[in-house]
Amino acid sequence: MNAIIVGGGKVGMRLAVLLQAAQHQVTVVEVRAEHVAEVVRSVPGVQVVAGSGADPELLERAGIRRAQVLAAVTGSDEINLVATTLARFEFGTPRTIARVNNPANAWLYNEVMGVDVALNQADLMAHLILEEMSLGEMMTLLKLRRGAYSLVEETVDPQAVAVGRRVADLSLPEECVLTALFRGGRLLLPKGETVLQPADEVVAIVASTQVERLAAILSASGPQRTVQAVGEA
Predict the structure, then answer these.
(1) Which helix (H) or strand (E) holds 154?
(2) Residue 179 host element (H or E)
(3) At 170, phi and psi to the nearest 5?
(4) How far apart are CA 21 and CA 5, in angstroms?
(5) Residue 175 lies in domain
(6) Dihedral angle over CA of 94, 38, 14, 31, nearest 10
(7) Are residues 70 and 114 in the same domain?
(8) pTM listed for this prediction
(9) Which residue of 11, 143, 175, 232 sits 20 to 30 Å from the alpha carbon of 74, by its own alpha carbon?
(10) Does residue 160 sit in the same domain as residue 190?
(11) Is 61 within 8 Å of 31 (Cβ atoms)?
(12) How far is CA 146 from the centre of its chain?
């Protein structure tokens, strides 16, 4: 994949490292001289173009016409939106991703502005913190499909309603799949006949709206939380 990153700050530089590690061709566009030097020093082999991602001529010099994806991750919503608009409508870039800095501007990040995926970091972080506050021991490992689903992990509490029961007999949420189970350092693939035991580490993919219902089954406060979740549904 040929990718262009507009913004060579911490987010852009980290993204460049990950893309390079995956053997993708990466070009970073950065206007600040000190950040240009930092990217060159910290990410050897990545092409760096000095200038603004809002400049169509500079984007063309950076190879935008060959790029399969552009990620605009600067600290300026204006620059990010201009960059995605140019990429989509001027150069026909197939995929555009943009960082939302000010949540009040999130409504601007849409198809009209050439944005395929908008990442509102403040909103994502707030929701992750909220989940950790309300779900006890359950840990969110990854957000999928723009936050609609979550990859979560929780250790089965000895007092949980799930203890001693087959997976097939659990009233799991409708949009939930148990993907892995760790027991005594061993990886098990959960099946309908698998009986859950205390201290089992369960990994699941679940709809974000149903995470608390899953937590109720695996936690010590299962019966109360399950009744409450069903009532709310």
Answers:
(1) strand 149-155
(2) strand 176-183
(3) -80, 140
(4) 15
(5) 131-232
(6) -30
(7) yes
(8) 0.66
(9) 143
(10) yes
(11) no
(12) 7
